[in-house]
Every structure is written in structure tokens, then in C-alpha cells.
Amino acid sequence: MGGSCPLANTGFDLHTWGGQLGNPPWLLRELLTGQGAPHLYFIPILFQCYLLYPLLRRWVNRAPVQSAAWALMVTFLLQGGYLLHDLELLPFSLPAHLWMLFPTWSFYFVAGMCLQRLDRSHLRVQCKKAALPLLLISAVFACLYCALSHRLSILHAIRPALLAATLLAFFCGIGVWEWLRACPGAGRVVSFFSRHAMGIYYNHVLVIYYLRQFPRFHLGMSGMLLLFAATLCLSTGIAVLLSLVWHGVRHITANVRPHDRNSHQP
Length: 266
Fold this sequence. Notes:
Elements lengths: L13 H6 L4 H9 L9 H10 L1 H10 L1 H23 L19 H11 L3 H10 L1 H22 L7 H21 L5 H26 L8 H44 L3
């Protein structure tokens, strides 16, 4: 993250966290503002989304098409503004913390609520028919995003091209799944990663932090691919282990509570 319009924190530094463990206000501020690590920027945005959820739900229920269109327009204009600023085509800069506010990300949340209203069987059929065009168009936007990121030397999530690629890839995934689900074991693999995806997401930055201490992961494309594979394996293992610990604790407390209640009965 960099340039004249930084859109996230400067990175993750374990030494900084270790030195601030005795400073609760700092820890709380870093977590609530999404600055604790590069991938936690979504936390304050998510808080805003759910605070506004009752109003957004009423809006979507009353006018689903219009709500999605307005949310898309607002998000596209704001994210496009950041892109134009990075390209030095915008004569003024947007407010520093606007990227952390709901409007910049509103389309993702509103689109999710609108999609929930659709007939899923009909959606699967249509996505299956259009899977290949969706894949190709999504790839075009993904390439555009990569080209812009390379051109600007800034890699962040606020890009209209990424928004388009993400939405199209989502629909493409629904269509492709109609073919993949016939493969033996595909359902179990998807179900496994669905259960542990959030745990993998939360711990992968810490895993990368430690893996980058080894020179082998800095050797060009092969190092990057090896880093990806190692991060996926280790992050998945950690997520599974934490899940087992969590369920074990819940099981123990569930068995202890009835005993405690019975022991206090006369």
C-alpha cells in the first residue's frame, strides 16, 4: 500500500504488536479501525453494514432493483474516484478516511441482500448456461486490475475492475459448480473449506509473516508459488486446530453446566 493515497495500513509487524500488548487503548483502536493487520480493514466496514442493516433491508424489500443500482453507482463512483486520483487524472483528493466508510463498499452488501431474494434454482440454471462467458469477462477485468496495480505499484481492494471481476466470478462459480459437483469428493472438499475459510483468512497473514523469514520464499515466481502452497497448508491446519479446540471447549462447558446445576439442588 502506498502512493499519495494510502488505502490501508503499512503492514503487519509482530514486534509492534508485542510491544503494545500492555496498551489496551492501542489494541482496541487498531482492531476497531481495521489497522491491526492488512486484511482486517473490513472490520469497521462490517460494523457499519450491520448497523445500517435494518434500513437497508427495508430499502431492498421495497425496491430491490433500484437499491442495487444506486448502491452500484455510489460504490463505482467512489472507487473510480480513488482510481482516477491514483492515475493523477483527478485534480483533488478524496477525504482520507472515506475508504473506510460504508458508501465505498455499499454495493457488495446490498447486492448480497438482493441475491438472497432470487430463486436459487433459476439462478443456478442461468449461471450454468453463461458460465464460459462469465469466466472470460471476469478474466478480462482481473487482468485489467492486475495491469493497473502493476502500473501504479499499489495493490488494494478499491478498484472498479476488481468489483466487476468479483461479481462475475461469483456467478461463474455458481455455474461451474453445477459441473464440478458431479466429481467424486468435490462436495466434501468445498464443505471443508467453507467451514474453515474464515479461520484461514484470519491467520494467513501471521503465517506469511513467519514464512517470509526464510529466503527460499523470496526466489521469484517459484518462491511465490511455494509461499502460496505453504501458507494454504499451514493456515488450513491452524484453522482446523483452532476449530477443534473451540468445539472441545464448548463440549466440556456443555457437560459441566448441567452437573453444576444439579450439584446445587437441595
